[in-house]
């Protein structure tokens, strides 16, 4: 039925709000094809009502058909844009919270989306370049304590602190300055324990 | 306002950190007096509130930006001053450690100011991205952005358009390829905001027939467009 494909894509968009599903290339392709087909139909219809051909047709019926087809084409486009836009939004929030695409999510993304992500990363790093001291990617929660207790979940080797360096081996526990290790926490290498 | 409460103002934070101590300890002012002096430039008095004023301003700018539906003018001078001050303080701490206790107070405060700054910048970036299509075509909004933000919006828009074109627009019939739908995404200036009046404003008209008198410290809930002008002249702050 007319508009069914777009409805499917809209449902998929809605699911994306909770978690990222695999990029549905075939559905996008199908919807684009359908839209092109609708336009071909539209043109054929316009030919019909062309007065130069002098054929007698019920113009009211044709007008209704034209309006319905045109509205469907517009709706298809809207659904396409919404689908892609929401996925970009998901990617952006991923960038700000984690900083990179986790390996398990990579297969879910289209090549264009991976491109977008890397370009976006460049864009943001360009923007924050003048603010040397301020880590824009740091947590959105206001800092409560200067020092925090962390447990190491994965070996990270030696890291540089403000003063000296620290060897982070798995399962060890450290009392460190929050700003020194914040990026490691967001990458899931360290766990903040009280 | 929840986000307002989360950040403890400089004065408060000193109090909370000191609260376990007894009254026999030196007072907050005495403690801060000595500690502040190395960080103040020569033309300032020892007990000058110069540091706090900028932070308070930033706090207001940050809450305003968080609450306002539209982009507000960028606080160029404020951000510049504060980043400079932060660098200055950090450089000083490297050489002059001072008492561990006061050093910790300062570092905590520095972290808090940094948080304010980055949250302020992030909030602006989010608005810029969200309304990229609309803002990049509006001279007025472009003039409210910093140079970095102007470059950002320009490139972001390009990136967004390229992505949309490559993924779907190119496969659509030609007359549907323009990106016009997203231009409909504009800030909604009717949103209700809560504001506190900073200084007596007098009567202002709310609707065609109604006016209210705004006195200092009054708190109002009204549409953003009504207070937009007052906000830009610092007569009210959002909460």
UniProtKB/TrEMBL annotation, chain A:
Protein location: Nucleus
InterPro entries according to UniProt: GINS_A, GINS_bundle-like_dom_sf, GINS_Psf1, PSF1_C
A Pfam family hit: PSF1_C
Domain DNA replication complex GINS protein PSF1 C-terminal: 145-193
Superkingdom field: Eukaryota
GO annotation, biological process: DNA strand elongation involved in mitotic DNA replication
Family: Belongs to the GINS1/PSF1 family.
Subunit structure: Component of the GINS complex.
Protein name: DNA replication complex GINS protein PSF1
Organism: Dispira parvispora
UniProtKB/TrEMBL annotation, chain B:
Family: Belongs to the GINS4/SLD5 family.
GINS subunit domain mapped to chain residues: 100-165
Primary location: nucleus
CDD domains linked: GINS_A_Sld5, GINS_B_Sld5
Keywords: DNA replication, Nucleus
Keyword Nucleus applies: yes
GO cellular component: GINS complex
Top-level taxon in the UniProt lineage: Eukaryota
Name the UniProt record assigns to this protein: DNA replication complex GINS protein SLD5
InterPro entries attached to this UniProt entry: GINS_A, GINS_bundle-like_dom_sf, GINS_Sld5, SLD5_C, Sld5_GINS_A
Record-annotated DNA replication complex GINS protein SLD5 C-terminal domain positions: 190-239
Compartments where found: Nucleus
Organism: Dispira parvispora
Gene Ontology process terms (BP): DNA-templated DNA replication; double-strand break repair via break-induced replication
């Amino acid at each position: 039925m007319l508009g069914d494909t777009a409805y499917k894509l809209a449902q998929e968009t809605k699911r994306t709000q909770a978690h990222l599903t695999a990029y549905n290339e075939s559905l996008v392709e199908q919807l684009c094809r359908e839209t092109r087909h609708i336009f071909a139909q539209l043109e054929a219809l316009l030919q019909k009502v062309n007065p130069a051909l002098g054929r007698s047709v019920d113009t009211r019926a044709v007008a209704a058909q034209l309006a319905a087809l045109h509205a469907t084409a517009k709706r298809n486009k809207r659904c396409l844009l919404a689908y892609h836009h929401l996925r970009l939004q998901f990617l952006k929030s991923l960038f700000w919270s984690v900083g990179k695409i986790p390996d398990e999510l990579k297969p879910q993304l289209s090549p264009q989306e991976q491109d977008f992500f890397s370009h976006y990363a460049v864009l943001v790093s360009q923007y924050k370049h003048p603010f040397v001291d301020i880590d824009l990617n740091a947590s959105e929660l206001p800092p409560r304590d200067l020092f925090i207790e962390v447990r190491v979940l994965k070996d990270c080797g030696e890291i540089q602190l403000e003063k000296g360096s620290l060897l982070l081996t798995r399962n060890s526990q450290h009392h460190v300055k929050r700003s020194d290790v914040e990026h490691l926490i967001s990458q899931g290498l360290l766990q903040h324990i009280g | 306002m929840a986000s307002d409460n989360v950040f403890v103002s400089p004065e408060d934070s000193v109090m909370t950190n000191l609260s376990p101590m007894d009254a026999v300890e030196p007072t907050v002012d005495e403690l801060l007096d000595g500690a502040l002096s190395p960080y103040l430039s020569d033309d300032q008095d020892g007990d000058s509130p110069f540091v706090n004023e900028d932070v308070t301003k930033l706090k207001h700018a940050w809450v305003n930006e968080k609450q306002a539906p539209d982009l507000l003018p960028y606080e160029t001078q404020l951000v510049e001053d504060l980043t400079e001050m932060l660098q200055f303080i950090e450089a000083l701490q490297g050489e002059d450690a001072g008492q561990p206790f006061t050093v910790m107070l300062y570092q905590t405060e520095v972290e808090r100011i940094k948080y304010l700054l980055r949250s302020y910048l992030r909030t602006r970036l989010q608005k810029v991205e969200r309304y990229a299509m609309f803002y990049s075509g509006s001279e007025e909004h472009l003039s409210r952005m910093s140079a970095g933000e102007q470059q950002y919006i320009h490139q972001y828009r390009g990136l967004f358009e390229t992505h949309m074109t490559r993924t779907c627009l190119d496969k659509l019939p030609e007359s549907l390829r323009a990106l016009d739908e997203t231009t409909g995404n504009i800030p909604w200036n009717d949103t209700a905001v809560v504001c506190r009046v900073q200084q007596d404003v007098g009567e202002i008209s709310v609707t065609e027939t109604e006016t209210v008198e705004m006195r200092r410290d009054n708190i109002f809930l009204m549409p953003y467009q009504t207070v937009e002008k007052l906000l830009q002249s610092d007569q009210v702050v959002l909460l």
